[in-house]
Every structure is written in structure tokens, then in C-alpha cells.
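Comment thread on ticket #2218

A.B. wrote:
> Attaching the input chain for the structure job we discussed in standup.
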Amino acid sequence: MSLAPRLDLRQSQSLVMTPQLQQAIKLLTLSNLEIETFIGDALEANPLLEMGEIPRAERSGSDDGDAPETPREERESDTLIAEGAAESDAPTDLSAAEMEIDRDTGDGSWGAADGFGGEDEGLGIDQHGGAALSLSEYLHAQVGAAGRDDREIFIARAIIERLDEAGYLGEPLREIADTLGIPLAEAERALELVQTLDPAGVGARNLAECLAIQAREADRYDPCMARLIDNLELVARGEVARLQKLCNVDAEDFAEMLAELRGYDPRPGLTFGEQGGSAVVPDILISPATDGGWRIALNEATLPRLVVNRPYLVELRDGCRDRTSRAWLKEKLEDARWLIRALDQRQKTILAVASEIVTQQQGFFLHGVSHLRPLTLKQVAEKIEMHESTVSRVTSNKFLHCPRGTFDLKYFFTSGVGGGEDGEGASAEAVKARIKALTDAEDPKAILSDDKLVDLLKAEGFDIARRTVAKYREAMGIGSSVQRRRAKKLAAIG
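C.D. wrote:
> Ran it. Output below, let me know if you need it in another format.
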């Protein structure tokens, strides 16, 4: 057998991710607000696209709330993606009849009430929280007027820049003094200046100092309060008798001191961090229907509508004299039609998934989290006859608003725990909700252990192990029975 180089021709088939397919997959994953940005870029890139208005008649749904029938094949995103990828390679006819075809993104609603989710309904992008003043900027604005001289103000500004988001100074003061090349006494005076600024408690080096600053601001820092703040570890352990003895006060005074201490903010700087956040804008809106069902609609306040600008298309067509210009116009028209079809299909796919989630989790929408059922992406995919990956993409970065609040779509997909009477078990979220309800309602004199919680849950049909109860309890930030006993004891005193 001889080895020698040679040339061969072979034919093979393979799947290729075309640009249209990649775009369709991307559109499924984006939220409505991200779609708005994407459409803005598309409008700049394609002169044949323009924003369209939603006619009042199209926005109005039927009074009975029934969803209009959509053929199953039209809801198949996988089929549309393949169809769009194939059509994108075909020549586009620029006849007058073709240009009269003007498909748009639709109103994106199933049985929506009149005006539901329109311009005056739902949450808009302009309702997002604006940029707020940061903690550092707020403190810098005050320190200029509070400082005694320019040198002290300079050192105080250097300290402000070293505060963390909670308002604490994590770097040792001596290291700051060495870095600035100043005596430690000057750094201490500058820190005292920072600690006089609003909000009270900023510039503290630990929790005790933070609470002491706030107590001084409230004119409550007497020797008894000082001893209470110096023994915060005893407060955490709930050693009431020992604390009363250390503070040398009776039960009534101690309860008053403890209530005062609870009123202080252990992280004063976080107030500014929270103001900079933005509200969650839901993508899907759910409301009760008159027939006892549910109306499901996309939030049109954040969902632009695209159409092809036909007058401009006719004008460009008449001006295209050479072959290159007509080829460019064909490409832009096909891109515009493909994007409109893809957005239309995205809306139908989202509504199909949302409708199935509402059907599967009917108990949650009627009665709350305790009736949340175990649900997987595969179950929804089989019901709506789509691929599991498509459902996964649709539920990413999407939020649903209903009378019970706003929820991430992923929230409705939970694993099953134990085995109930129906054989399908209970949702993990339902078990967590029940554990929280039991611990919140427990008697301070009869705190429930994990074993007791297991027995109570089993009596209600939740067959789960003790380690599962402990895991869920810790995940929700609920302390052990010993920790809860101390906390409720302190709460009873306050």
C-alpha cells in the first residue's frame, strides 16, 4: 500500500447558521426594551423601515376575552426561521403588486381588553428611574461648607473616595495618613468631619461606630447606650439579663433603648445605591377576563411597530436606473420584510409560551404561591409543539405582570419536591412559602425545629426530608430555631 498525496472531490450536507437564523434566535432572547434598541438600530440601517401606529380597532380585543385562533404552523418559530433563511437567498420581485403587501408586527395580543397595554397602560421606558446622586457626590457637595480650612477639606475628600457603598471606611486610617504624607492626628480630624455629614453614620470603621454616630446625632448617646452598643455580640445572642445588668437599667428602659437601636441604619450609604436602580418593565401583561379566564397581551408601551415605507419604496424604485441600485433596493426590501416577519413570529411565540404557563400554573394566579406546580421547559415545549431550546430562549430576560405582582418567567419553572397525593409532588417555591408561613406564625415560646417543620409539612402533603427543609430555610435567610428564639425574644422586649 503506497502513501501519496492526491486531490478528491466530496459532497456533504451540514447545517449552517445563516445571518437570518442568528437574528431570529437573538430576537427570541431579547426583552421588549432590548428589542426597542434593536429596532432603533434597524431603522437607522434600513431606509425602507418606519415606525407604524397601532389602529384603535386593531388594539381592541373581543369582549369575551377569547384568544383569536392562530394556526399551529404559523406559531412554529423553528419552521419560520428555516423558511425565512431560505427565502432570503431568493430574488425579490419589485412589482407594484408585491410592494402593496405590507405586513407589520401586529398588536401582539390575545383577547386583550380595549386599550390594554396601549400607550396609556403598563410601564413605559420613560418610567425608569433616572440617574441619582451617588453617595460620594452627595458627601463632596457637603464637605466644602463643613470644613474649617482647605487642607482639612482636601483630606476629608480623600477619605470620602475610600468609603465603600455602605458608607464604611475599610482602609486603616494610618495607611491613609501615610499615603497622603500627613500626621495621623490630621487624618483623624478629617474623619471626624466626614462623620458629621449626612447621612448619619457614614465614615464609620465598624458597625458599633456607625450606630454610635447615629446615637450622637439623635442625642441619645448616654453611658447606658454606649455600653449597649459596645456589646452588640450580646444583643445578637439575645442575652437580655446580662445586657440589662451591664447597662444598669430596668426592663422598661432597656426595651426603649433596644427600640432606639433598631431604628438606626447599619448601612447608611446603601440608600444612595438603591436610588440609582431602575424599575422592571414587564414584557407580558395578564389581567382577569370577564368569563373567568385570563387576558394575555404584550406590553405595547415598550413594543414598537414596524412597517415598510411604501411611498418611499416606490420613489426609490423609480429612481433606480442601474443594476447595482436595484440589487441594493431588493436586498433592503427583503431585509425589512424578514425583520417584520421575525418580530411578528417572536410575539406569537412569546404569547404561546405565556398562555401555556398561565394554563399550567392556574392555581398560582388564582390562589398564590402555595399552589405553584412543578413545571419544566420540556412540558411547555411539548404542549405548544416547539423545541425546548426555543422555550428557554423565550423565557430568558422576560417578565410577566399579573394582579399578584411582576415575576420573571423563569420563576414559574420549578422542580418537584416529594410526592403529593396527585403523584407529581409539590413545587419548591410552594414548599418555601409554606416554611416561611410556619416560621412567621410560630409562638416565641414554642419555636419549631426542622424536625417539627418536616412533620407539619408531611401532614399537609409535602413529603420532604429534613435536610431539604434546612436548605430551603437557609436559602430564604430564615435562621435556625435557636436564632429565631433569640430574635423573637428581643422583638417581644422591644
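A.B. wrote:
> Thanks. Noting for the ticket: Residues 19-127+282-307+336-367 form one domain.
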